[in-house]
UniProtKB/TrEMBL annotation:
Name the record gives this protein: Pimeloyl-ACP methyl ester carboxylesterase
Stretches the record annotates as Disordered: 147-166
Record domain AB hydrolase-1: where: 3-224
Molecular function GO labels: catalytic activity
SUPFAM superfamilies in the record: alpha/beta-Hydrolases
Amino acid sequence: MDIILVPGFWLDGSAWDEVVPSLTAAGHTVHPVTLPGMGSVDADRSGVHLADHVGAVVEAIDAVRGGVPVTLVGHSASGGLVYAASDARPERVARIVYVDTGPVADGQAVNADFPADAVEYPLDWDEFEADSLRGMTDEIRADVMSRSVPQPGGTVREPHRLSDDDRRLDIPSTVVASEMSGEVLRSLVAQGHPFVAELARHRSYEIVDLPTGHWPMFTRPADLGEIIVAALRG
């Protein structure tokens, strides 16, 4: 299976480096994506929009030869990107794996109130609560910070746009619950909570626990790889 790995905010394709060995050992072909504007701290991010990031994921799907179905893996804010890409190419996506994230509904943004004149959104550990940082040792945090790239402002404040074609809801999906437990997520679904409203619309999904903070690709990479491999076995 071809697996397209999409990092969340502030990260490039190398965020998946320690997850890749588990996937390739299981016989899969991996395609880590570095999104537009995220290749260097010196890149010009003033003209990068959310549609450019979604488009990069769609291009990665189209680049897989033979028109074969692929698996999309998205972390954090890229849950919305892989979901939107599946909306654009529902016939090409065999499964979606959401890593501590989930699908984002039409019209929703990560932060619609992010200032319109802000070109970039840099990583700041002080913005995160302790639960988000579980497992992030000082060494890991220093490493991530040293290679972090400011997020283009447009990708923070702009809303996702989806089509009226709901074939994306038939795509089997796996939610890797890390910062928030699977038990809590299932409870929110049962309550009809808006946080998981789009996930609840899916016709086939599972929630798998991987207790750690928000960045399991750094804190528990081998375990995350095994969960992805298991998800692909169905």
